[in-house]
Specification:
Helices cover 26% and strands 27% of the residues. It is of the alpha/beta class.
Length: 309
């Protein structure tokens, strides 16, 4: 059995540390791809995880493409080396749409395999991968006019992956909202947004229908002073352990149906707190394509249908 973990760009060290904390030995690396003979583990810092990988000989371009087609239809190439030869193989496979996603839209559900050339005459392939996106990378059609910051892209991606988003009339709490990128997303969806931050919102966002700004600290806010909310969102800057305490307080209140929060790391990565977030029943912790040195915590009331293994 071979499991492969594809690190997000520039975050190979975080993935290596996470795997080491779980006792996973990496036997080889191939660009950002880490290969292990151990059973797969939850890896938040992996952009994608390749399950049950197989090694195949590559006698020629044609035979390599046929070997992949005989396994399944849809394949995504990862080619840090031998790129020209890999591209010729990929050209002989069925085309997989790589159009940027227009939000709101749900992540695809069709299986998408991954493969790479370890050497000109040898490939490794996995028909089953964690992400439905090529190399775990979600490309979104950006709005370069409306939002006051680029933070909105993280929320768009999180909701695409969750396959759910606030509906018109639902009540949302946005903690650490200023200047208002996430509030802008939620208001555009027709939700009522309670935006909490000591700093004011961008005036254009503050003027949007359904937006209510409260000039308070997200950490001093009492749940009973807000009441029931369908969604709690947080992109607040704080240490992970402090965010975990905030999330646990709101969970204990019973007033929140869904959570979407950014876990931001300052300096060294706090893997222990990341694992504590992931241990919450029903939670998912993952690195988004639009995240930096941060993870995203998702806790929906009703988890979406699982992706194909």
């Amino acid at each position: 059995m071979i499991t492969a973990y594809l690190a997000a760009e520039g975050l190979e060290n975080q993935l290596c540390e996470e795997l080491a904390h779980q006792g996973v030995e990496v036997r080889a690396t191939h660009g950002r791809l880490l290969l292990s003979d151990a059973a797969p583990v939850a890896a938040a810092w992996a952009a994608n995880v390749w399950h049950d990988c197989i090694e195949l000989p590559v006698a020629s371009i044609g035979t390599a493409a046929k070997a992949l087609r005989d396994i399944q239809r849809n394949w995504a190439m990862y080619a840090p080396l031998h790129h020209r030869r890999a591209a010729l193989i990929q050209e002989k496979l069925p085309h997989v749409s790589s159009k940027p996603v227009v939000f709101p839209a749900a992540a695809p559900t069709s299986p998408l395999g991954s493969w790479t050339l370890l050497a000109p005459d040898r490939m490794v392939a996995a028909a089953s991968c964690r992400s439905p996106f090529a190399n775990g990378e979600v490309e979104l059609v950006e709005d370069k006019v409306g939002p006051p910051s680029r933070a909105y892209l993280k929320l768009w991606e999180a909701l695409v992956r969750l396959r759910r988003w606030p509906q018109p009339g639902e009540r949302c709490l946005d903690l650490g909202a200023s200047p208002g990128g996430w509030t802008w997303v939620l208001a555009r969806l027709g939700a009522h947004v309670v935006a909490v931050d000591k700093a004011p919102l961008d005036p254009r966002v503050a003027a949007m229908p359904g937006v209510e700004w409260r000039g308070e600290s997200a950490f001093a806010l009492e749940p009973d002073s807000v009441g029931p909310v369908d969604w709690l969102f947080s992109d607040v800057i704080c240490y992970p352990a402090r965010l975990l305490r905030l999330v646990e307080r709101w969970r204990a209140s019973g007033l929140v149906r869904n959570f979407v929060c950014t876990i931001k790391f300052q300096g060294e990565t706090d893997h222990e707190t990341a694992r504590a977030f992931a241990a919450i029943p029903g939670a998912t912790v993952l690195h988004l394509h639009y995240n930096k040195h941060e993870l995203t915590f998702l806790l929906p009331l009703q988890p979406p249908d699982p992706l194909p293994r």
